[in-house]
Design goal:
Oligomer: single chain
Strand content: under 5%
Largest sheet: none
Number of strands: 0
Helix content: 55-70%
Order of helices and strands: HHHHHHH
Length: 115
C-alpha cells in the first residue's frame, strides 16, 4: 500500500501522458481522465482529513487504475510514458493487484475492455 501511495505522483504523470496519446482508445481515455480528476479532487467518498482511512478511496482508485491499465492496455505504451524503470512498474503492479482484487473483474473489464 505504501508503494502505491508513493507512486501516485508518477501515476498522475502517466495518466496525463496516456490521455494525450492518440494510440489509446477513447473509452480508456475517458476512464483515465475521470480517475485523474477524482485523485486530484479534494472531494472524496472518504474525506482525506480522517487519519489513515481518508486515503483508502484514493488508494483503491489508484489500484484499480494500475491493475486495469496493466491488464488491458498495451504494456509498451505504458512503459513509453512511465517515469520510472520497468521493475518499479512491476512492483507497483503487484501492490495494485493485491488491492484491486476487491474490485470485481467484470467492473474492471467494463472500464478497460475497449482499451
Amino acid at each position: 500500500m505504501k508503494e502505491l501511495l508513493k507512486a501516485l505522483p508518477k501515476l498522475m504523470r502517466l495518466i496525463a501522458s496516456l490521455v494525450r496519446d492518440p494510440m489509446l482508445p477513447r473509452a480508456a481515455k475517458v476512464a483515465l481522465a475521470a480517475a485523474m480528476v477524482y485523485l486530484a479532487s479534494p472531494i472524496d467518498l472518504i474525506p482525506d482529513f480522517i487519519p489513515v482511512v481518508g486515503y483508502l478511496d484514493d488508494l483503491m482508485v489508484a489500484a484499480l487504475l494500475v491493475d486495469g491499465l496493466l491488464n488491458w492496455v498495451d504494456r509498451g505504451l505504458i512503459l513509453k510514458y512511465w517515469p520510472g524503470s520497468a521493475d518499479s512498474l512491476e512492483r507497483l503492479a503487484r501492490a495494485a493487484r493485491l488491492l484491486a482484487v476487491w474490485v470485481p473483474r467484470r467492473i474492471k473489464a467494463r472500464i478497460f475492455a475497449r482499451a
